[in-house]
């Protein structure tokens, strides 16, 4: 493991999603401790996307930006909102020069699948339909996210393709949660890795799926046909339970004729890009923004 990252492991709280309410409080506390980037060069606006129910979004608009990404926070499907995601959404907007629409989707277990997917998809449709009002080039709208949010982004891309929805030009998937089955080598081996453990992954999927059977729109790795999906950048962490399902998904996209950039970060663990003092974390965050700039021609 990267020695800069390893030094922080004793400071990490116990990873646990058995009690979602307690987990949310802990997650909010961790997010509040992350230094927010300078947002002087952008407009930030809170809005509610009309849906049933309305979906809160926070829009980060760098000066002169026209390309956009619908951005979905992580948190195991049960934690997070536009406030906890602020340090990351603002950082991506500032580093990339892209409009970031951060989505406050409904959380499980109170709102199991497909609530979060429905909210994310509603925001994508709204962004495309109101592109002129929002100052967005409708041909340059991407989807992306961290962890469970990246899994949601992959599902949004699948749904948009199947339902002939708004065109998505790119997927930015950082350590996505794509497969509820936990059958890969990394899922079976990295059972007590920092921040994301096997039990935490299982609890997140259990809360999210509820009584519904797993489907491709819940767990994108279950999709049989990946052809026609947007180009993707997939980033993985070496010591992450999700690692192998992410690499497998990237290979399957390639085999389906989809252009993919896969970046496997050695010495890292799930969510370690949040340790901003580490050199490798700085490179991880910079690369996500650079991939977005390249894909959206910013």
Quick synopsis:
It holds the Pfam family Abhydrolase_3. With 298 residues, this protein is of the alpha/beta class.
Please name the defining characteristics of this protein:
8 strands; eight-stranded mixed sheet; single chain; 10 helices; alpha/beta; 298 residues; 37% helix
Explain the overall architecture.
With 298 residues, the protein is α/β, with parallel strands linked by helices. The protein has one domain (3-296): Rossmann fold (3-Layer(aba) Sandwich), CATH 3.40.50.1820. Helix content is 37%, strand content 18%. The protein contains 10 helices and 8 strands. The protein has helices at residues 3-6, 20-32, 86-96, 115-129, 131-134, 147-162, 185-189, 198-209, 243-255, 279-296; strands at residues 42-49, 55-62, 68-72, 99-103, 141-146, 170-174, 232-239, 260-269. Strands 1-2-4-3-5-6-7-8 form an 8-stranded mixed sheet, sandwiched between helices. The longest helix is centred in the C-terminal third of the chain and has 18 residues, at 279-296. The chain is globular and about 45 Å long. It comes from Pseudonocardia alaniniphila. GO terms for molecular function: hydrolase activity.
- Biggest pleated-sheet summary: 8 strands, mixed
At the fourth level of CATH, the homologous superfamily is Alpha/Beta hydrolase fold, catalytic domain
Average pLDDT across residues? Answer: 96
Low-confidence runs of at least 5 consecutive residues: none
Strand order, main sheet: write it out. Answer: 1-2-4-3-5-6-7-8
Gross geometry: globular
How far apart are the first and last residues' alpha carbons, in Å? 34 Å
The succession of helices and strands, N to C, reads: HHEEEHEHHEHEHHEHEH
Structural class: alpha/beta
Instruction: Please identify the top-level CATH class.
Output: Alpha Beta
For the secondary structure, the number of strands is 8
Give the amount of beta strand, in percent.
Answer: 15-25%
Determine the fraction of residues in helical runs and give it as a percent range: 25-40%
């Amino acid at each position: 493991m990267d020695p800069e990252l390893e030094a922080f492991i004793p400071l990490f709280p116990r990873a646990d999603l058995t009690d979602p309410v307690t987990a949310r409080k802990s997650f909010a506390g961790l997010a509040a401790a992350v230094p927010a980037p300078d947002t002087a060069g952008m407009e930030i606006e809170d809005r509610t996307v009309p849906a049933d129910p309305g979906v809160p979004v926070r829009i980060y608009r760098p000066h002169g930006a026209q390309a956009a990404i619908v951005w979905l926070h992580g948190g195991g499907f049960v934690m997070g909102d536009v406030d906890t995601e602020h340090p990351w959404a603002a950082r991506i907007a500032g580093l990339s020069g892209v409009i970031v629409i951060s989505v406050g989707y409904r959380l499980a277990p109170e709102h199991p699948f497909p609530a979060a997917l429905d909210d994310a998809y509603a925001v994508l449709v709204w962004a495309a339909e109101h592109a002129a009002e929002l100052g967005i080039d409708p041909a340059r709208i991407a989807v992306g996210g961290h962890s469970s949010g990246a899994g949601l982004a992959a599902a949004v891309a699948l749904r948009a393709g199947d339902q002939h929805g708004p065109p998505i030009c790119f997927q930015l998937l950082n350590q996505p949660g794509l497969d509820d089955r936990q059958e890969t080598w990394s899922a079976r081996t990295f059972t007590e890795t920092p921040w994301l453990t096997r039990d935490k992954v299982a609890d997140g999927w259990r809360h999210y799926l509820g009584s519904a059977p797993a489907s491709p729109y819940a767990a994108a790795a279950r999709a049989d046909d990946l052809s026609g999906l947007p180009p993707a950048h997939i980033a993985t962490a070496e010591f992450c339970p999700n690692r192998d399902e992410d690499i497998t998904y990237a290979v399957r996209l390639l085999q389906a004729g989809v252009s993919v950039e896969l970046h496997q970060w050695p010495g890292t663990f799930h969510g370690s890009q949040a340790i901003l003092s580490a050199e490798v974390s700085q490179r991880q965050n910079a690369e996500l923004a650079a991939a977005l700039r390249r894909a959206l021609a910013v």
